[in-house]
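One-letter codes give the sequence; the integers encode the fold. A sample entry reads:
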Amino acid sequence: MEEKESSPLEEGGTTRAEGDDNAPAMAELLENAYTFRMPNRGDILEGTVVKIDPDQILVDIGFKSEGVVPGAELERIKPETIKVGDQVLVYVVNPEDKSGNVVLSLIRAQLERDWRNAEKLFESGEIFEATVSGYNRGGLIVRLGKVRGFVPASQLSTATREGNEEVQSDDLAKLVGQKLKLKIIELDRGRNRLILSERAAIREWRRQQKERLLAELQEGDIVRGAVSSLCDFGAFVDLGGADGLIHLSELSWGRVSHPSEVLKVGDEVEVYVLKVDRKERRIGLSLKRLQPDPWSQVEEKYSVGQLVEGTITKLTNFGAFARLKDDEIEGLIHISELSDERITHPREVVKEGDVLTLRIIRIDPERRRMGLSLRKVASAEYADLDWRAELDAYSQEE
């Protein structure tokens, strides 16, 4: 009787598969096959372009087969901008069509990503810049990637003329191609509605800039800015998002009745930071502190009895003020020094703008005051002084 060969199991040994070194790898492959997850409609995936045909693009998205971007979409994009090996975002239109393919869209992926970015901007309230791509009678059109946003004319910080539609359209047309600071104020994806505001963005941006300036500026700093407005008590200067005030008294070492005598809106100026009040959120500036104080050298340039040329700047009941030629120093001609005759008001003798020869009769640098006289210009008591001054001037000419 022929002896039957015993099997490994009968002998209590191991099977061939159990002893094979490749068994764990096979088990892992089998497990992966059963746990493989198909993509879902609406997924945004990153893939690699593996093939470009005239009627489709194949994209490796890490699944069992490549996804397909169909030819219908190729007509809406520029295929020449895509090449094999590019990393692209795709949107899953259909996880599995009748041919078993995963149908993808490049355009919808971009649109989806842009909507998600818009939602983040809306939630954060972040300010961003975008270029105006078009306009209609109601406002401006701005695109955030593939998403169309709208800026109503009422939300523009740039003024547009109202009343006449044609005129307003001309104003809006001029903004096409320009970059604007914007903020999303309304988002309704279901209605494909994205409303933007330049006005809100500028307001928020200026608030942020003021916070930064208040934190960074120090008294004694010298900064540049543009005059944004004038008022009776001073001039406001835009320092780059926040305004500082140059008080009337800080515009010039001389007397200033109104800021318009020194500045105009739009002037670029360098200013001295006089005060930073972080509690009250105010910035005080000075224009005159960047110029030498003329009163610090007044005794070197002028002396009592000297004849000077001055322009009448202001009349009061008690006299007239005159600014010395080529200087910021003003002196007072008391009403008693205007004429040898009795007068009741300076206007009887002088008027604003008159250029006169005057005599210095008093200098008080500490109190920043100078007394002038019109009636003593030809006074005999100063004849000797005038003769010596004239002789000195003649000698210098020679």
